[in-house]
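Quick log. Single chain, no ligands specified.
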Amino acid sequence: MTIELPAVVDEEWLAPRLGEDDLLLADVRGPNAHTRGHIAGSIPLMIGTPGQFTDEAVRAAFAAEAALRLRRHGVTGEERLVLYDAGDCVNAAAALQVAELGGHRRVTVLAGGLAGWAGEVETGVVEVDKTRVELVPDPGAVLGLWDVTATDAQFLDVRRDDEFTGKGGYPCDPRQGHIPGAKNVDVSTLFAAPGVPKQADDVRALVGDAASVVTYCHSGSRSGLALIALRSAGYDAKNYFGSWHEWSRHAELPMER
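-> predicted structure:
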């Protein structure tokens, strides 16, 4: 029997499940931080962050590497994988996307991370063993430019209002504005506290009733974080990691201000 896994979990959900055979808790802050203090029973998991994929072959190669990185940490893809970071969930959101690219289909994030954890904390080095299980990569877990130019999903621009309207933005971008038809919801308004999404009804009041959502920001980090709140509210959401940094460089692509 497959046990369902919420899109986001909290301490109340996690604490009584620690130690269950099919649950793996992973700290994505880095091995040194993990050694200094980590949630009891967790392993260190460093699998990187997605990038701006220039074509499908580059994305597929990264997904294959992500699967290998999971394997090197003893992750099989069959367990319920719970990721946590220091607290704001930015790094956990990035690791979530890498794990999904690597083919893991049962992965979630601990809201509030270590900062919100009141349970037992351990110190010391935790060794992990490689697994012989081969995960099947899922390159489509993170969207590329070729995907988003063909989608009919709702674009959600999670940048600040000045970035969305083109009045502000980053000087490295040749154009300022937003993808036509995108809705602007600042990522900060989706969270009740750092790394803790608002209640589903509150998120839906901001985002609307779209069946599927594509998030983007300037370079994929804020829009990756937005995934946590959106999925916790029940949305089918994926991140366009290239975001405005990539879109603005293609003069043939439309924009609005």
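DSSP finds nine helices and 13 strands in the chain.
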